[in-house]
Design a protein that fits this description.
Multidrug-efflux Transporter Regulator, Chain: A, Domain 2, 3 strands, 57% helix, membrane, MerR-type_HTH_dom, DNA-binding, transmembrane helix
């Protein structure tokens, strides 16, 4: 099993380390363990969650764009 430190995970997911912290805090991803020096380690599943969240966000943006681009929406 491959472990990632927070910086590595952030780099691979193309997000900031603050985003990794936030997703950990709200429970979207979980740290697997802490090593000496209080280094957090994440497993590859955390990276998969970032991809899934990004896909969900993009789908929501596309949906909102479609809804608001309709000419007959009510203001």
């Amino acid at each position: 099993m491959k472990y990632y430190r927070i910086g590595e995970l952030a780099h691979l997911a193309r997000v900031s380390t603050r985003t990794v912290d936030y997703y950990t805090k709200i429970g979207v991803i979980k740290e697997k363990e802490r090593r000496s020096g209080n280094h957090r380690l994440y497993i590859e599943e955390a990276l998969t969650w970032f991809y899934l969240v990004n896909i969900y966000i993009m789908k929501e943006i596309i949906l909102l764009n479609c809804l608001f681009s309709r000419k007959d929406y009510i203001v």
